[in-house]
Amino acid sequence: MDFHYMTRISENLLARVSGPMKFRLLLQPSTSLFLAIRGGLRDARVGDPPYFWGLFTGPAERRVMLKDGWKSISKLFIFAVLLDVIYQIIEQRFVYVGEAVLVAVILAMVPYLLVRGPVNRIARDIQKERLAGR
């Protein structure tokens, strides 16, 4: 990759923090966290393995898990891409599709992947404590 290319991407990403529509920098990860918590609680209820860990350790279930994760977060991801495209049109007068996808991954997918598994583990631990206390 060209140094100027990387510089442009980093400058454009940093500009989003103070530019118009910065509310989405809180709204999209918050929505992603809500979806991850909901998915993690559902996983714990049905006995599925923690999500991110299960993607790497359960090759038999990987396709099903990826499909379930994408089903949960696809609308948010597409919305994040569209909002970033709108931002780019307003602010830069040009659309960099790769940047829009990168921003959507950072704002929508990363929080989801990081939170769904731990929520599952915590919920399962709470379930075990409740069952042991009976």
Question: Could you give the distance between the termini?
Answer: 60 Å
The amount of beta strand, in percent, is under 5%
How many distinct beta strands? 0
Q: Helix and strand string, N-terminal first?
A: HHHHH
Describe the largest sheet.
Answer: none
List segments where confidence is low: pLDDT < 50 over at least 5 consecutive residues.
Answer: none
What structural class do the secondary elements suggest? mainly alpha
Estimate the global geometry from the Cα principal axes. elongated
Number of domains: 1
Note down, in words, how this protein is organized.
There is one protein chain. Helices cover 84% and strands 0% of the residues. The protein is mainly alpha-helical and 134 residues long. The chain has one domain (3-133). Helix 3 (51-57) crosses helix 4, helix 3 crosses helix 5 (97-133) and helix 4 crosses helix 5 (97-133). The longest helix is centred in the last third of the chain and has 37 residues, at 97-133. The mean pLDDT is 90.
Summed up, what is this model?
The protein is mainly alpha-helical.
Write the layout of secondary structure elements.
Elements: H1 3-18, H2 24-46, H3 51-57, H4 62-91, H5 97-133
What descriptors fit this protein?
134 residues; mainly alpha; 5 helices; 84% helix
